[in-house]
Amino acid sequence: MTASLDELDALASQTAAGKTTLPQRTPVPKDLKPRKVGGFRRSDVLSLLGAALAGIGTAALLFTLLPFSGWLGFLIVAYVAFVAFYAALVSLDEDFAAVKDRLAAVLIHSLAFTLLMALVFVVTFTVIRGWEALTNWNFFTQDMQNAGPLDPLTAGGILHAILGTLIMITIALAVVIPLGVACAVYMNEMPGPFSRFVRTISEAMTALPSIVAGLFIYASLILILGPKSSLDWFVAYLKTKYELKEASRLGPAAEDDKEGRVLNRIVRWSKGGLEYEGDPRQIERFICELGL
Question: Which residues, listed in sequence order, are joined to residue 262 by a DSSP beta bridge?
Answer without folding.
Answer: 265
